[in-house]
Amino acid sequence: MSDPGKAGDLLAQIPKGEGKSLPPVHLWNPDFCGDIDMRIARDGTWFYLGTPIGRKPMVKLFSTIIRRDGDDYFLITPVEKVGIKVDDAPFVAVTLQVEGEGEQQVLRFTSNVDDEIEAGAEHPLRVEIDPATEEPAPYLHVRTNLEALVHRNVFYQLVELAVPRQIDGQTWLGVWSGGEFFPIGPQP
């Protein structure tokens, strides 16, 4: 980037699309221009130069050009690629809508940047257990290599919806969505 201190320069390079389609960041391979002082906190707050970005439209715009390569996160335009820090996941699933029940159930999540994601084969749910604290950390696949941390209140809703199912001789509690069963944890 000509001046890595200016997030506005990066914004000016984002192609203006029509409708809700996302820019094809997976097709862009610009030169790496270095890291910028931008961070996404675990709660989904975006920071620039240590200050929260208070304008949601700006955060939403930046969220359309994020890409993860390996363990690293970047904001990508057709001509620039800059590194940013992500504390956990770049998105947070903040609401849940439930339609139907049992194997016909559909779970629709809304992220902190207003993306709507329907859990299913293309958007699986997974739960990691912290080995030290044994605390669950649930995630929802949003798009290529990007996930949303499921907010604690939304996770509690999932736990309330959980049903038992035998998997490899063990009973697991989990939820159905889009014809897929997503284990949350073993039944005690």
From TrEMBL:
It comes from the Bacteria. It holds the Pfam family DUF1285_C. Residues 23-89, 90-184 form the DUF1285 domain. This is DUF1285 domain-containing protein.
